[in-house]
Amino acid sequence: MAARILRPQALTREAFAPFGEVIETQGAEERLINAGTTTRYHDLARVDVEAAGGRPLISIFRGQPFASPVTIAMFERHPLGSQAFYPLSGRPWLAVVAKDDAGRPGDAFAFLATATQGVNYARGVWHHPLLSLEGVSDFLVVDRGGEDANLEEQWLESPYRLEI
Ligand SMILES: NC(=O)N[C@@H](O)C(=O)O
Ligand code: NI
Question: Which residue of 54, 108, 115, 117 could cross-link 98, Cys pair, CB 3.0 to 4.6 Å?
Fold first, then answer.
């Protein structure tokens, strides 16, 4: 079977809402703090990591770049916690997600994130592992630490061909 073609759309809060939040200053609640010397862009995403005694982890992921076309052959999800990625290297990147279809990945959606957009995958949302673009890129990652297994992977019978 020929690969299904997937083309990325712009990342917006509205379009990404079924999968989690977009982490960006645009449209965020702004709070002037520190005697007016700092703007706090407040409460951008829900860190949901407490299930089964989990705790929040802050890590840095250094991703190798992918080039178009990208083969999307699998999805993963974290049933016990959310997972947030924020780009640190000034480059765009790809967030690829899928609806759930009776416990397996359903329709897939690709989002082209700018260098100043992160995402928080809500707990249990199917997503592709990190897809950096253009060069080796660092990301700040906030996700769940704990004893229980928190990674479920599914390979697709028919991969997508993601054309940027
Ligand atoms: N495995 C891991 O920590 N990374 C993935 O969860 C990912 O979404 O990149
Ligand atoms: Ni993940």
Answer: 108
